[in-house]
Amino acid sequence: MSDRRTRRIPASLIAGLIMLGLLVVIAVIAPILWGTAATAVTPDTRSAPSAAHWLGTDDLGRDVFARTLVATRLTLIMAAAATAGSVVLGVLIGGLVWVGPRWVRECVLRVIDSTVAFPSLILALVIAAILGAGTASAAVAIAVAGVPSFARITSNMTGAVANRDYVGTARLLGVPRFRLFSRHLLPNISGPLLVLIASSFALTLLDISSLSFVGLGVQSPEFDWGRLLNEGLPAVYSQPLQVVGPSVMLVFAGVAAMLTGDGLAVYLDPRGSRAARSTPARRAPRGPSTRPDALVEVRGLTVRAPGGKTLVDGISFEIAPGEILGLVGESGSGKSMTAMSLGRLQADGVAVDAEVLRLDDLDLLAGGHRSRLAKEIGLVYQDPGSTFNPALRMGAQLTEVARVHLGLSRRAARDTLRDGLGEMRIREPEKVMGQHPFQLSGGMLQRAGIASSLVTDPKLLIADEPTTALDVTVQADVLRQLRRVNRDHGTAVLFISHDIGVVEALCDRVLVMRTGEIVERLTSDQLRRREVEHPYTRALLAATPTLKTTPRPIEEHDRV
Amino acid sequence: MSGVDLSVIAEAPAPPVRRRGGGSGWGSFALRRLGGLVLSLGLLVVLTFLIVPLIPGDPAVAILGANASPDAVAALRERLHLDQPLPLQFLDYLRGLATFDLGQSFRYNTPVTTTIATKLPYTATTALGAILLVIVIAIPVGMTIGVLTRSGRRPWLAVGFGTVAGFFASVPAYVAGTLLVVVFAIWLKLLPAGGAATQSAYVLPIVALALGPTFAVARVVVQETYAVLHQDYMRTARGRRLDAARLYIRHALPNLMASTLTLTGLILASMLGGAIVIETVFSLPGLGLEVVQAIIFRDFPVIQGIVLTVGALAILINLLIDVILGLIDPRTLGGSTHV
Amino acid sequence: MSDTPLLRISDLSVDLGHGIRSTRVLHGVSLEVERGRTIGIVGESGSGKSTLAKTIVGLHRIATGSVVFDGVELASAPRASVATVRRRVQYIPQDPFSSLDPRRTIGQTLAEAIDPVGARERRHHARIVEALASVALQEDAVDRYPHEFSGGQRQRVAIARALVVDPDVIVADEITSALDVSTQAEILQLLERLQRERNLTMLFISHNLAVVEELCDEVVVLLHGRIVEQGAIAEVFADPREAYTRRLLESVPGGAAFDVTAPVVTAAVRTVPVRGRRRLFG
Description:
The complex is a heterotrimer of chains A (about 550), B (about 350) and C (about 280). Chain B is mainly α.
């Protein structure tokens, strides 16, 4: 893919690959250079480190340093063979289940789930018990023992891909099963699969060595690092260095594989969760308020993304007390950024600056005022499915502001909330308060959210596309609710939307935004009469489909 | 469909979902897990049974050695019912299990159950002690580092921790154990190098066993913390202008625990395997040393018994984790764990 | 060519989920589609409109009832004949970001539609270029990958893939719902042009009544898996017989019937998946 070429290779990947390369080099040349020294029995037994023997000699007089290096070859080969075995079987099982019939998949996954719980070492021990101790049986044992978890993870990754539309479409087109796997599934899991193979290699290497360590793997006269540890342990009091050598090699190999795996993961998914770095805020000179009668005053608001890109370019507007102001624009217009900045909820790394940013007598640019912010600004968000904390019940979340900032007791807060939910025409408020968010529908969640934000009787309600994710009849209700709240309580509303029809129906005034600027300001009457001037607004109106047919009004005798 | 009561259909959602058996909640969870439990235990039993029949060649010859007399071989085959058809052998095996009779050890001629009962406490102490240590240290440390380094803050801390944690996570338990013995028992002479004579004898094994997994889990927790902090509901919580403690502990931590537990369940269960290996380093008279000896000397009843015990322990640990998960995040109760 | 409808759906019922979790999503839906007509299928979350679309093309199993396309009953016909018939009904999914394989070029994706087994792009190059041209995409798109295109352009590719096999019926499942207003307008213009040029038969699934009014000849209104009302657009929209249809029409903001001051209806608590999530996971 073309954008791969421009990505930087992370340092960890380079370091890991260099270390692995070093190991391979040692594996190749060590037996040539030190082969005889590693197996030559000398009378110089159990000697301390010296010039001739850098790590001393073991109980048969063999040079420990030489043995440590020469053991690299066998260790790496066994690890590679066992990893290959796990990978091939695991990928075939975990991947192919997704192209077959559903019942096969369910059966296989259940069996895998049951075996994944067993420590893989136990499985390896069972196989070693069957086949007896030895190099080959250890490799087979570890390979088979690694299959369940490999298959499970592969199956998870493949499942995520198999559910995507393009796989369903390919299946519909009649693409044969195995080709579905090789053409669509395998390439799309290749990245995470590589990372998995790297970490699997590390684990396999350590597991095989642990089998040799307990005496079940490599047998004398062959030796790998595990075997060397096993031989060195009885002498650990007199010659501790004999175990240090293989230990260091094992750790070195483990770290190398870990760095490679981590580096690969970063390389493949550079949008790490830590990416955002704060842009230094350029402090604009604070200005005097020019419209003191406005409830909300914004002058010269500028918002910049972490990379420096300007998202909102010095806009200014006001909201009168009790007014519903609509902010409409397409994606990238900066409307959500404006709303979030006003609510002091911009994402990490986003820099917000303005000459004036105030709500009534509260200067929003000054820090602090946590309680006033919580009480005077209410917030309603776009996606009710993700707005609420899935681990907490609704009652606890919705009463939180009342309990923390109004100082209400738990009972008083719940009573107030219950009243608010009733006002939003929710039939069984107690039941709603006892549910978790995932148990409630989108419309219900939005009504509850609005009710909760009204408990403190805020001066301003910031609603960021609150109806975009809702069904059309539900949206109509929520819009009516917002209108009612505004007229009954006098709460000012900043309403963000991409739908100019919605904004026209609900708002008193409308601002049209495009690429960070306000291109037109209208009253809703002007909008309704299509008295618009800016070409962008015209284009937006032209592109928005409207219902042309009006259903004829119901006569009295028609009423159901 | 005229005459529909509009006051009832305020939204046009799906009609009440009528499930044909078991709704969501603890009921269906218990049902599912019970099924899974039966399947896991069943597989375990079948697996341990198959050890003997799957031996290449004649199992009796493998046990007694190539030099054994034909009479001895025949006698052993008789004693182990090896000439019976496989299903009958399996039934015998099941019958034995039902009465907790795991057979007699070939070497010692003592009941396997006695052997296991004597040795299990050592293994269990080491394993469970290490698991507790991992959970108690890794989760708070990981979350703290995650919160402190979120969104690119304190990059020196993020890189430093990543390096140190990555290093220690790559050290296998038996290597850590060996090196700890060298440092603390031989050079510094602070702690015993082996045996189970005193309480302090358990310190090194537990630390050695817990070292790698603690850092591995901590790394996972850091990544999960980043993921959780990015969620929409954290922005909602910030919109409520809560103080930091309430924000992270009340809102982030439960969700963090849910995803962490799912991922670390495997790590914790695999520590049972590590506990077995580490007994070699510290000469702990537990199941690990016993099963290795049993494999070398082909003492199959003991092998079967120990594998059954450790396997059952692993299944139990997983069940416990699922229960804890269910308590923290009720969403996991209703659905299946796989896609 | 006769009066027999191209697509006839009779008493169709569909269950989703398996075993214990199985729920009936469509109840006895009956519908006829004449050649050259565009039918709009409207409904809200849980209405079953997407399930209906997917069942027609074969993505869901039929519980009871039948789907008959050009005389061939799809559920009971032998595999070989079903496969050929199925190719004449093409499906365009909603999400432009998951409808194309990110690892394959546009050309390879279209080639796979023409020849599912081999998918050799070079062999069918001319036909692919023609299909791309009909959706106003240049020839150089053939060697490029999906991530190089915008959401609207990807939907065009999805439309091209549906058209390249010369189908009789196109089932468009909320194909503009994930797009910006201006991009949506372009796609709608494209669809109108294709309707005129090719006399397409189309099933257009949508929750947006204004779009449906613009594009479709007839409309079918679904609620809870049942057809509430159906007929010619002009008639149904001007004189809805069912209260639910009326309520739908009165809810469209920007429509003359929408009254923001009308009284609000009380909501009962129901356990239901949230629409936003549904959209992501189809």
